């Protein structure tokens, strides 16, 4: 938006003010994410820049908080760092175990959400779909309904899941299955939204062409439809994974100590004694989200290219 | 005419109309079967649990299951004042509660409607062995409160496990002696006030988001694609970053010894002992939630602004409108769909927010979700369910409005 040649002085002043305002808002958006990165290398247990950090004295910086992520919760943190030390880290370190849990739960809930979600999106994008609007509204609602209500409902439901049909089949609280199912439900709206958006640009005549050439519906799906919508499916899967990877309220309500995840560990850290170790975790998570954002952005462009949709 | 339609048949001789209807029905079934697994999954893992939880808001058997004799007396005497038979039933039930150790459970249920009665039940049950007829005098000797008609009325209401009491409490109302309801004393009006506060704070956050999102969405929409894609990263990165990470960063920035206060002190704008409290209060909730929800406002605004043709504004200018008039009369009305979509979405998400207020809200920055969690942690499950029911109703109304005005299929991510 260049300044037009006919602008009067007042408009010139406004033009520069407007850009200054925009810069300020962008700083507001991004500063909190950037600021934690240098602070996570603080040599002191403070949450602010020390004198030494500001003068770029190497002594002001250290990796101690990253080191703490490995040693915290270990049985023998001070032993020599050989193979058995690393085995100890892998088995006992609190944050490492939380990371393993987060990845396992995220992986399985993504699989469930993506498979069911993609299938449903295929049905929803057909023009013959009955009650399309209502069903779509139901499937998107886990994103809209306040998480506290979902978590409360699951808390009661999981304590006796079969009671509704008058049976007793144990409980789903404090199980991996329970958390995976809950996270899959929360991830479904994202899969539906991204995959249906991809299918809007999908040329149905390609599927008809495959069918007329004798391909079975399964073959048409795997050989024609899936390759074309794959970028959308992968984006949806990444959204579902991030949703699970970042979810804390349902975990607080339905998970046991065995299912400690990274967000729950952070939650404890923020509520109780907040230590700069939280900032080192946060920095790692920001780097992961940058990688995910880059992936999704590349997928979106690829999707637009292979479907021949040009960005407006 | 009829002859003509009868002539139209498919290759195997069926009327075309019937064949078409059959084919369409088959296509509808096929489409539905694709959606069915997910629909079933969502019903079981989402709708059923919430429905079951909501049932608790109208069902509480803490008293009715532990006081069978009183329940029978209330059943037989629909309107009578408590007589000796009623007190005898009460004495029998107190003995039962003592033996089953359920006096606290029953007392808790009555305590919801008449405060301070839980101890009445536990202490009376402790003495239940010593009660001798006439039970009226014996029970009044244990505690004069047993003569209180309000307690009898509460017990009558609680004798059935199905109740609207919890919605009354959630609406800050109580039963009166004559069977009606009234608003509770001013200093006890917690919940409606909190609902009001949640809506006001959400509205403030929505307005701030709108004010902040408008300029940058406009900038992104008017810049050339290559530049705006680059700047878009600044909007999308917070969107993809963990909520807890963003909340942590704001604590680091805003706390008393945090970065912002330190900068202000070192600049001499604020005295060292006069550091601004920006977090663990309402301000903290507003700032952090605005930051978290801002991308949800920018994205729909941006996608609408991109489609607005600059030629309209140029035409207005060429016809003599000032830049302000052009903006107000030409540009702004065209952005309304985007503003509506973004504002509704941000408002819906803000009303149900839990994590951020819990972490940075302090005492006065808590929202209704935090109250639900509080009652859950105190095992006041029916009350938590009633509050959830009201919150859910509000959110679903907004969701319905969103679907009407914007359409759920217009929802976009990034």
Provide a descriptive summary of the structure in words.
The complex is a heterodimer of chains A (312) and B (414). Chain A has helices at residues 9-39, 51-54, 64-71, 83-92, 94-124, 132-144, 147-159, 176-200, 204-212, 217-245, 249-254, 262-271, 277-306. With 312 residues, chain A is mainly α. Chain A folds into three domains: 1-38; 40-92, no CATH class; 102-306, Orthogonal Bundle (MetI-like fold). In chain A, helix 1 (9-39) packs across helix 13, helix 5 (94-124) packs across helix 12 and helix 9 packs antiparallel against helix 10 (217-245). The longest helix of chain A is centred in the N-terminal third of the chain and has 31 residues, at 9-39. The model of chain A has no long low-confidence stretch (mean pLDDT 87). Chain B folds into three domains: 16-55; 68-160, no CATH class; 191-410, Orthogonal Bundle (MetI-like fold), CATH 1.10.3720. Chain B starts with a helix and ends in a 9-residue tail after the last helix. The mean pLDDT of chain B is 88. The chains are: A mainly alpha (312), B mainly alpha (414). The interface between A and B is large, with 95 and 90 residues.
Write the layout of secondary structure elements.
The complex is a heterodimer of chains A (312) and B (414).
Chain A: H1 9-39, H2 51-54, H3 64-71, H4 83-92, H5 94-124, H6 132-144, H7 147-159, H8 176-200, H9 204-212, H10 217-245, H11 249-254, H12 262-271, H13 277-306
Helix pairs in contact in A: 1-13, 3-13, 5-8, 5-10, 5-12, 6-8, 8-10, 9-10, 10-13
Chain B: H1 2-7, H2 16-55, H3 68-76, H4 84-100, H5 103-113, H6 118-126, H7 135-142, H8 149-158, H9 165-170, E1 173-175, E2 181-183, H10 191-222, H11 225-240, H12 243-254, H13 259-266, H14 282-306, H15 310-318, H16 323-351, H17 355-360, H18 368-377, H19 381-405
Antiparallel strand pairs in B: 1-2
Helix pairs in contact in B: 3-4, 4-6, 5-6, 10-11, 10-14, 10-16, 11-14, 12-14, 14-16, 15-16, 16-19, 18-19
């Amino acid at each position: 938006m260049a300044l037009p040649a006919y602008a009067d002085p007042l408009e010139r002043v406004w033009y520069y003010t407007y850009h200054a305002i925009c810069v300020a808002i962008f700083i507001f958006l991004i500063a909190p994410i950037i600021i934690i990165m240098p602070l996570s290398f603080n040599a002191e247990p403070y949450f602010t820049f020390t004198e030494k950090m500001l003068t770029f004295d190497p002594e002001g910086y250290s990796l101690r908080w990253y080191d703490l992520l490995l040693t915290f919760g270990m049985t023998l943190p001070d032993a020599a760092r050989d193979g058995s030390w690393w085995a100890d880290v892998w088995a006992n370190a609190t944050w490492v175990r939380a990371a393993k849990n987060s990845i396992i739960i995220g992986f399985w809930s993504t699989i469930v959400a993506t498979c069911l979600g993609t299938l449903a999106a295929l049905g929803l994008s057909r023009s013959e779909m009955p009650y399309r609007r209502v069903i779509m509204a139901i499937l998107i609602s886990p994103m809209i309904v306040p998480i506290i209500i979902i978590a409360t409902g699951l808390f009661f439901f999981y304590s006796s899941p079969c009671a509704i049909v008058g049976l007793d089949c144990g409980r789903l609280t404090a199980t991996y299955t329970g958390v995976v199912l809950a996270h899959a439900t929360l991830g479904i709206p994202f899969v539906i939204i991204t995959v249906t958006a991809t299918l809007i640009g999908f040329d149905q005549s390609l599927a008809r062409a495959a069918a007329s050439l004798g391909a079975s519906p399964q073959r048409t799906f795997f050989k024609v439809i899936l390759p074309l919508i794959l970028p959308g499916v992968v984006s949806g899967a990444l959204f579902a994974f991030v949703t699970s990877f970042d979810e804390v309220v349902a975990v607080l309500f339905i998970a046991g100590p065995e299912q400690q995840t990274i967000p729950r560990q952070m939650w404890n850290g923020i509520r109780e004694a907040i230590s700069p170790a939280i900032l080192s975790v946060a920095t790692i998570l920001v780097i992961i989200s940058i990688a995910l954002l880059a992936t999704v952005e590349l997928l979106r462009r690829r999707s637009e290219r292979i479907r021949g949709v040009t960005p407006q | 005419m009829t002859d003509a339609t009868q002539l139209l048949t498919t290759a195997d001789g069926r009327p075309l109309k019937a064949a078409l209807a059959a084919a369409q029905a088959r296509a509808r079934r096929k489409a539905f079967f694709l959606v069915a697994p997910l629909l079933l999954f969502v019903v079981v893992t989402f709708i059923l649990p919430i429905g079951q939880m909501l049932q608790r808001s109208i069902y509480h058997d803490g008293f009715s299951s532990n006081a069978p004799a009183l329940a029978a007396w209330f059943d037989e005497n629909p309107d009578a004042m408590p007589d000796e038979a009623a007190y005898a039933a009460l004495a029998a039930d107190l003995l039962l509660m003592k033996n089953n150790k359920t006096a606290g459970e029953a007392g808790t249920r009555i305590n919801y409607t008449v405060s301070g009665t839980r101890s009445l039940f536990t202490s009376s049950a402790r003495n239940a062995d010593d009660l001798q007829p006439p039970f009226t005098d014996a029970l009044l000797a244990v505690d004069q409160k047993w003569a209180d008609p309000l307690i009898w009325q509460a017990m009558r209401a609680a004798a059935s496990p199905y109740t609207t009491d919890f919605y009354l409490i959630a609406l800050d109302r109580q039963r009166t002696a004559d069977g009606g309801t009234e608003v509770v004393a001013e200093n006890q009006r917690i919940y409606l006030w909190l609902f009001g506060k949640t809506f006001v704070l959400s509205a403030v956050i929505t307005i701030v988001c709108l004010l902040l999102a408008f300029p940058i969405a406009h900038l992104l929409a008017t810049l050339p694609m290559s530049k705006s894609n680059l700047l878009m990263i600044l909007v999308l990165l917070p969107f993809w970053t963990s909520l807890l990470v963003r909340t942590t960063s704001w604590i680091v920035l805003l706390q008393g010894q945090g970065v912002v206060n330190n900068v202000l002190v070192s600049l001499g704008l604020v005295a060292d002992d006069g550091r601004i409290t920006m977090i663990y209060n309402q301000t903290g909730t507003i700032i952090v939630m605005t930051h978290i929800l801002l991308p949800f406002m920018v994205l729909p605004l941006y996608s609408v602004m991109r489609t607005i043709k600059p030629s309209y504004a140029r035409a207005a200018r060429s016809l003599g409108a000032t830049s302000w008039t052009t903006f107000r009369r030409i540009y702004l009305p065209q952005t309304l769909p985007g503003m509506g979509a973004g504002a509704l979405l941000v408002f819906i998400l803000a009303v149900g927010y839990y994590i951020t207020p819990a972490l940075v809200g302090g005492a006065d920055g808590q929202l209704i979700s935090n109250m639900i969690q509080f009652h859950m942690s105190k095992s006041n499950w029916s009350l938590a369910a009633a509050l959830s029911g009201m919150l859910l109703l509000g959110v679903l109304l907004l969701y319905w409005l969103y679907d009407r005005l914007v359409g759920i299929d217009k929802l976009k991510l990034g």
